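Appendix C reproduces, verbatim, an entry submitted by the partner laboratory led by Prof. M.T., so that reviewers can inspect both the input and the predicted structure.
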Amino acid sequence: MSDLPPVHDGVHATVEAYAAAVRTADPEAVRAVFRPDAHMWGYLGPRFVSAPIEAFCEVVAADTAAHEWATSYTHTVRSVEVSGEVAVAVLDEYGYQGHDFTNHFSLVREDGRWRIAGKTFFRHDPR
């Protein structure tokens, strides 16, 4: 998969699965990469958001314009750091629903499977 150590590959694959799920506006695929008790925090412009991940799944499900932005959507997994059964990853997204985001994910490996436990994000608004 990459030049990363094998344990990093699993984290990287989970983050890539997240990006694929949002690109296709697939809430079930989004749910699959998160723990059911996951939470998100972040900023949409000046507005602070704190919500269970299900709220994000509802946003994904309601996205009727994905066909308009998905073709220009790109992303980069900027970093992955693993410490035993926990990890952090940073994902930069360009063009998600017309905006650029930086996402910081906390992941845990349970029963051999990496899942996102928390998402902290920032939307880059034009100045």
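The two ends are 37 Å apart (CA to CA). Additional entries are available on request from the coordinating office.
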